[in-house]
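Q: I'm building a small set of examples for a reading group on sequence design. Run inverse folding on the following structure and report the sequence directly after it, with nothing in between.
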């Protein structure tokens, strides 16, 4: 089920300005501008190149880790502490 309505409170001056600018420059309603900004901020924008969110866009440049590699990195400090007699 899709969320049909959401009331947001607590807009600070910077966020208000950004929302109004997005609406004005995009020829959008405030609702459309807010949805666009929410999608962009969540990394769900239509064009990844136009988004400020990095997400997984740099994976091909920096690589990714397998689950085993990630576990090894998490376990390494404990193993080093044991060897040094710190635990």
């Amino acid at each position: 089920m899709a969320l049909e309505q959401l009331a947001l409170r607590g807009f600070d001056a910077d966020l208000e300005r950004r929302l109004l600018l997005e609406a004005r420059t995009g020829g959008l309603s405030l609702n459309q501008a807010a949805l666009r900004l929410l999608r962009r901020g969540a990394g769900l924008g239509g064009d990844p190149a136009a988004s400020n969110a990095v997400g997984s866009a740099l994976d091909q440049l920096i690589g990714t880790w397998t689950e085993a590699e990630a576990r090894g990195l998490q376990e390494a400090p404990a193993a080093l502490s044991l060897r040094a007699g710190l635990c």
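Residues 13-47+58-83 form one domain.
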